[in-house]
Design brief:
Elements (H helix, E strand, L loop, with lengths): L7 E5 L2 E2 L5 E2 L4 H11 L2 E5 L20 H4 E2 L2 E2 L9
Parallel strand pairs: 1-4
Antiparallel strand pairs: 2-3, 5-6
Length: 84
């Protein structure tokens, strides 16, 4: 984007709200901010919105920290004794 080699940013979205809010996974928001910063159009590809008015009406799924802090039972952050 910084080199001007992009025409637009298009993302697939899980859902969208009737007011145009995009409901998607982590990573979409930073792309939208970068597109805005560099003056590119940001578009989302998704089904026609119908089930919620705004993104605030959608519950955010929270996953256990162990999904990213452990691999095959081994800690990925060492044994410093610090809590997360």
């Amino acid at each position: 984007m910084a080199k001007g080699e992009v025409n637009a940013v298009i993302v697939g979205a899980d859902r969208s709200a009737r007011n145009g809010d995009v409901i998607n996974k982590v990573g979409t928001y930073p792309l939208a901010l970068m597109a805005k910063e560099y003056g590119y159009h940001f578009m989302r590809w998704c089904k026609i919105p119908r089930s919620v008015e705004t993104a605030d009406d959608v519950a955010i799924e929270e996953r256990p920290a162990s999904e990213v802090l452990f691999f095959q039972g081994q800690s990925l952050i060492g044994s410093s004794g610090r809590g997360v």
